[in-house]
């Protein structure tokens, strides 16, 4: 039988299978990546929308209700006061002092919380010895300590740094302890079976498990540090945004007070976004965690 006869006898068994009725196999095209839209992120519209509505109501409803500007200034008056302060070189000096006090206090509180929290979570004797004192000291209102710090450390920057450190210390400490204790027991046991030492277990399991908690503590700690610095300036200071708040209050400059509060809010927001950005970089596997407060 010749090659031609074999092909005729196959009757459509050839590669095109024209008579078989089967459609040729095709490869499904890759789906394009789904584009993000407002349905996925409604906050892109809701957040600025709520802000605009509140500002407009605040601006135009107050005169209708007969609220005096010296009681509650309008947003336009607050904006004018903010522009005036930003154009004053002395304001930037006050801002720099408060930022430095908050940063130094935050670093001091975080360093102490990391050291002590690690010791408490890893050494049972340290936990049993120090935890009663820490819990007792935690119940003391931190703001009530500000006058003592002024007496002990003076009216300079040191008393405000200590105040910021104390206020930011406790939420950071609790998150460090809880984070180091949250490590998966099975992973710890597995590494121990394979001969890993305590430091290797700490570095490979406990510390990565604690990172989301640590960043949660950093997030709330930086805001508390700003609060501590301002409270310390309220008690006794010659410069800083807290001191500027008192001065505007004495001068009955309510719009100026609101302008300083806006700057303090922006400081907190910027610090919050910096911590969140670092968390997404170093603890991206667990972005959503409950912050354990003070």
Automatic annotation (TrEMBL):
Residues 1-36 are annotated as: Disordered. One of its GO terms (cellular component) is plasma membrane. It is a multi-pass membrane protein. Keywords: Cell membrane, Membrane, Transmembrane, Transmembrane helix, Transport. GO terms for biological process: transmembrane transport. Belongs to the binding-protein-dependent transport system permease family. This is ABC transporter permease.
């Amino acid at each position: 039988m010749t090659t031609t006869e074999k092909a005729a006898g196959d009757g459509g068994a050839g590669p095109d299978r024209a008579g078989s009725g089967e459609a040729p196999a095709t490869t499904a095209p890759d789906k394009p990546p789904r584009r993000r839209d407002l349905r996925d992120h409604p906050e892109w519209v809701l957040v600025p929308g709520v802000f605009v509505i509140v500002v407009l109501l605040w601006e135009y409803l107050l005169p209708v209700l007969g609220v005096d500007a010296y009681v509650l200034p309008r947003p336009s008056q607050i904006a004018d006061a903010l522009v005036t302060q930003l154009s004053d070189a002395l304001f930037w000096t006050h801002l720099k002092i408060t930022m430095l006090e908050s940063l130094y206090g935050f670093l001091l509180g975080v360093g102490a919380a990391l050291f002590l929290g690690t010791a408490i979570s890893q050494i049972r004797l340290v936990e049993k010895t120090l935890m009663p004192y820490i819990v007792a000291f935690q119940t003391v209102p931190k703001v009530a300590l500000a006058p003592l710090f002024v007496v002990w450390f003076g009216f300079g920057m040191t008393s405000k740094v200590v105040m910021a450190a104390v206020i930011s210390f406790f939420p950071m400490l609790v998150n460090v302890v809880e984070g180091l204790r949250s490590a998966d027991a099975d992973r710890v046991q597995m590494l121990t079976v394979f001969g890993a030492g305590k430091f290797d277990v700490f570095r490979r399991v406990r510390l990565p498990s604690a990172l989301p908690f640590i960043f949660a503590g950093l997030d709330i700690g930086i805001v508390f540090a700003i609060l501590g610095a301002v409270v310390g300036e309220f008690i006794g200071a010659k410069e800083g945004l807290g001191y500027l708040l008192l001065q505007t209050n004495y001068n009955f400059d309510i719009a100026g007070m609101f302008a300083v509060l806006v700057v303090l809010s922006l400081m907190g927001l910027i610090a919050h976004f910096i911590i969140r950005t670092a968390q997404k970089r170093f603890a991206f596997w667990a972005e959503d965690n409950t912050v354990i407060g003070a």
